[in-house]
Structure formats: C-alpha cells, structure tokens
Amino acid sequence: MKKILLFILISFSLSEMAYCQSKSIGWVLQNSGTNKQLYSVYCINNDTVLAVGSMGIILRTINGGLQWDSVYSGTNSELLNVKFINQNIGYIVGYDGTILKSTNGGINWSNIGITNMVLFDVYFFNADTGWVVGGNSGGVPIGSKGVLMKTYNGGVNWIIDSTLNKTISSITFIDKDTGYYCAQNSSEPAIIRKTTNGGNSWNTVYISNGINWYYSNIQFSSAKTGYINGYTEILKTDDYGLTWISNLFSVYPQSIFSFQMMDSCYLYYSDGPDICMAEYCNNIISNCLSALDLRGLNFIDQDYGFVVGIYGRIFKWGYYDAIYEKVKNDDIKISPNPFNDKITLTFTKEYLTKDNFNISIHCCPMKK
Asked: Which single residue of 25, 80, 301, 338 has CA 20 to 30 Å from 211?
C-alpha cells in the first residue's frame, strides 16, 4: 500500500505543474543605463559585447547583456564605429579624428588619432596592419574631402592620404593586398575603388547610376563575392568587384543604415524603424523588431546578435528562458515556481466548493 501511495504522490506532484520553463528565441530589450544615441555594436564573443555612441559613450557587457557597464573613453566626441581584431585588440573611430585603441578587451582605451576629420570605418587585417577612413562630412558620409589612413605598426604611425575629393565611408580587405572602399560627394556619383597592392594604389571599379547616391557599408564573403549597401538597396558582385548587381535587396522608400551578411541567402539589416532578417533568395522577411531609429548591428550567427539605436536602446536577439503560464487564477497559489521535483497547489475554500470544480493539468514540453 505504501508503494502505491508513493507512486500516486509523485505522479500528482509532477502532473500538477501549472507553469513550465522553456527556451524561446526573440528580441529582448537590454538595460543599457543610458539615453544617449548608440551608433555601433560589436560582439567579441557571446559574453563580451561593446556598444559606442554620442558624447564618447562606451558600454561593455561581459555576461551577454545582463549588465552593461560604462567604460571611460577620454573623449566627448561622437563614436561611430567599433571593431575588434581578436579577443583583446579593438578600435573605435568617430568625430574629430578620434581613433581609440584597446589592448585588453575594451576595458581601457587610448586615443591615437592624428587628424580632425570625421572617421567612419576601421579595418585591420592583423594586429599590425590596418586602415581608417573618413572625410569632412557630417553624420551622413557625403563630403568634398576624404581621408585614407594606413598603419603598419598597430596605430603607432600612420600614412595619410587626404587628396581625395570624396568622403570614404567604408573599407574592407580580403587579403593583405586586395581591398575595397566606397566614397562619395554631393555633386558626383558614388564610387567603389579597389587595390591589389596593399593600398599603394587604387582603381575605380564601379560608379553608381545616380547623383547623391551613397554607399555606406562594404563586405566581402570571399575573394569573388561582395556586398555593399546604397541608400535603399544592397548590391552584390560575383566577379571580384568588377560589376555589381543592383537591387539584390531593397527596402525602398526606407534607408538601409547597416547590414550584415549571414550566408549567401540570409542577411540582417536595419532601416531605422526596423531591424529584420531577410531571406532574400526566397523574398522572405522575418525576425523583425520595430523600434525608433535603430542603427548599428552585429551578429555572431543567425541566432545571436545585438542592435543599438536612439535613447540608448540595445536589443539582443537570441534564446532566452521563458515561463509559459498555464493557470492564472487568484484562487490558486502555486509554489515554488519554477520547480524541480515537487510543487504545492493551494486553493481557497470558495474555489473548492464550486459546483464545477475540477483540475486539468497540462505541461508544455521543453523546446530544443
């Protein structure tokens, strides 16, 4: 008899779970601790992430966004872009020629900038060799003067070319010799230029088909295949940047502020009001988050990343613990919640005396 009672007790305890804990994926708003505009975010790894923005603000988390701490930047300038070469070495660029460098994972930063122009992008091929680009424009990368800076020793010394009549908004390299940048001014079409000798010389490989049309982000997934976003569209090349397919993906009439290719068919993009994933091969838009003025984004993979924007907003995309509520009634108390192996249900006297009183227990399975 005792064995039967024990079996009934255990079955009752397990079956009377009114709440269950599961894994869900979606957007989660972070507590950034600031209301300043954030322009760029970078994931060093799943745990350590940095976000930068207006008035020299740098935010850093070491627990995947559970807590964000402010890091001293030493500047009040607008910080527009943050990138890391490895777990330790990273760079931030922005207004007033600001170039900040960290060698300890973003804990401390020193300003190594030597120009006064607005700097939009930074790319380092390794710990020693890197490029920083910008110009004399404002927040939109369109200006009558550009600057291209290269270092061979981790930012100690810079070779500066400031002879360009267009602001350079983005730069990338696919090996130590082959690289691309995009540039534009207010009176001529935007251009894409390529080097095959490590930046010693550059040749124009593409001219846009419109005046006042600018490119702001260039990425290559292989030596042949690259992507670049224009004002409302993303273009693609499959022939080493010689020709570009227009309207690979478009959000007209919205503007694409930033994007990241995930593979040959998937990308995340921000158009200001929204951040979405686009499966453009099948013309499917998903994972959308609608919020005001979202700009910078960075993803480790399709299931993990961050986006930042106005008012210090930081959203995380990823898996999180969710409690699915199956019973919610003031006449019933459930404890503890969530539980491991035992749970207690307490009913009010009035509830137990109802004519239609019955118990129906359902448990949702754990999602993989």
From this structure: 80
